[in-house]
Amino acid sequence: MNRVLEKDFKYIADSEMPWERLEGKTVLVTGGTGFLGSLLVGFFDYLNARQRRNIKVAVLVRDEEKARRVIGGCSAVLIKGDICSMPP
Length: 88
Known about the structure:
Layout: H1 3-13, E1 26-30, H2 35-51, E2 56-61, H3 64-71, E3 77-80
């Protein structure tokens, strides 16, 4: 992770948001290979690593290969599908 992104993630993680409410929860991120989606996945991974939040991240993607390239370093679960026809 680059220094600028890490600094931003730290700033957000240290804010007065109630991050503890997500502890042990599962979060679904759609568009995980896009700009905002990939940043969300990366941020949740950062929270898990730095604050031990144990947030499970499920990422809905259309292209698993692209997802592995974009967010491959994160511990997210990839779900291949489309928001209009969610897999079970």
